[in-house]
Specification:
257 residues; Glutathione_S-Trfase_N; Thioredoxin-like_sf; single chain; alpha+beta; Glutathione_S-Trfase; Glutaredoxin; 8-stranded mixed beta sheet; 15% strand; GST N-terminal domain-containing protein; 37% helix
Amino acid sequence: MSLKTDVYLNLLAASLRGWRGAMALAPARRQPAQLLKLYDIEASPYCRLVREVLTELDLDVLILPCPVGGTRFRPEAEQLGGKQQFPLLVDDNTGTRLYESADIIDYLGKTYGRRLRGHGPLRPLAVASSFLASATQWRPQGGIAGLRATASKAPAQPLELYSFEASPFSKPVRARLCELELPYLLRNTGKAAWKDIGPPSFRDRLFKGEKGTSRNRRWLAEHTGQVQVPYLIDPNTGTAMYESRQILRYLNQNYAA
């Protein structure tokens, strides 16, 4: 399947979720002193719900991919929590380890941001629409993107990815990182103003507004001169790049076994 088709399907998935995980309109009161850790499966509808909230709270997190058949982080997750169930959030700032997406959402809201209703009356609708969004990730060859592990070489240091959950261009990169079991620091880059809505070419031509409307978007503007996602940094090779197609090619060339 072509990347272009993939992007259109990811647009559909984001629409099914009402574009949750696109905006960072309620940033956390504070950033945790130690990075949050999320044992995650990119294709999981329950993990998606947690990643959406992390974008909306503008919280960075270390993603430890646990695809089906993976051996790099799944045993570690089981050792920490007692079972291989995902998502699993580990917060070393408070000594918290949590399964269940609703419990994690409640915890993140209570600890770092505004009041969130992981267990609210809209929970069944959120779960159902997240399942539908995950179903769009099925591919004729290879099944659901971001679900199953493929052989890879482990990096010495985690990679770094600027992304937001609803981004249709970032989704293929996150799916591949999960399949390859490559740990990465997720720099959530949600939009914090309505003038940010739309792809960069549309946004910059129509609004000509401030690009750095949230914390990590400001970093991109200051350090790269532009704001778009995904943006990958690999400290293992000193590589940094935009564009999904180039990033996917780089990951396959450098880490796929």
